[in-house]
Amino acid sequence: MKLDVCLCTHDPRRDVLELALRSLARQTVGPGVFRVLVVDNASTPPLGDEVLAPLRAAGLHATLTREEVPGLTRARLHAIRRTRAPWMLFVDDDNELADDFVAEGLAFVASRGDVGCFGGRLLLPEALRPPRWAAPFLPYLGIRDPGDEVITGASMEWGPWEPTGAGFWVRREQLEAYGARLERDPRTLALGRTGRGGLASCEDSLLAREGLRLGLLNAYVPRLSLRHHLDPARFRLRYLCRLMAGYGESLARLDAVLRDGPLPVPERYRGLGFLRRLASEVNAARKRSAGFALGLAALHWSARAAYRREARAAR
Question: How many CB atoms are closer than 10 A to CB 307?
Answer without folding.
Answer: 24
